Amino acid sequence: MGQPLRVLLIEDSDFDATLLIRMLGKGGYKLQHERVETAEQLQNALQREWDLVIADYNLPQFSAPDALEIVKQTGRDIPFIIVSGAIGETTAVAAMKAGAHDYLMKGNLARLLPVIDRELREAQNREGKRQTKEALQESELRYRLLWETATDAVILFDQSGKIEFANPAVEEVFNYKPAELVGKEVFSLQPS
């Protein structure tokens, strides 16, 4: 079939929503989608997982900037693309600065599929970086706990001979407080 894609449409026009869904289907996506028109409907829909949000800029009871703010409040990284027939360049730039990932004019949707492909790739890259950062932080925490709870004295030096780290066991073994050692040169230490 096609690549699965969960799309949340913020759109008040049946015709425009149908057009977008058809374009995505023809682009090779196997769609799961929902259309919302109000802030309340958006908040309810965001209780589920979405790969992408496509928003009209102006709706009778709602706007893309309002929708973007609601999506950002979830803390999730969901690509947010504005598709509108009536926004100027200044408004579009302001939306991008606020966090929208791209904008397209309804009269020129030729870029829609490439934009979606790019934004999905970039979201995947950001997620990979987030996971790598979390794994590194977890590894560093384990490493730190290992050295801080070791019963053997551990002292780490830089290349110039300055102490970068001393674990709590240093006080027991050498009678030096670890905080007093960090930043000192080894040869300048006098026993207390």
Compact overview of the structure:
With 192 residues, this protein is of the alpha/beta class. The chain has seven helices and nine strands.
List its salient traits.
single chain; 192 residues; alpha/beta; five-stranded parallel sheet; two-stranded antiparallel ribbon; 7 helices; 46% helix; 21% strand
Q: DSSP helix count?
A: 7
Rg from C-alpha positions?
A: 27 Å
Stretches where pLDDT is under 50 for at least 5 consecutive residues are none
Oligomer: single chain
SS-derived structural category? alpha/beta
Overall mean confidence score, pLDDT = 87
Biggest sheet features: 5 strands, parallel
Q: Say how many strands there are.
A: 9
Strand order of the largest sheet: 2-1-3-6-7
Helix percent reads 40-55%
The SSE order reads: EHEHEEEHEHEHEEHH
Report the portion of residues in β strands: 15-25%
Through-space gap between termini: 75 Å
General form: elongated
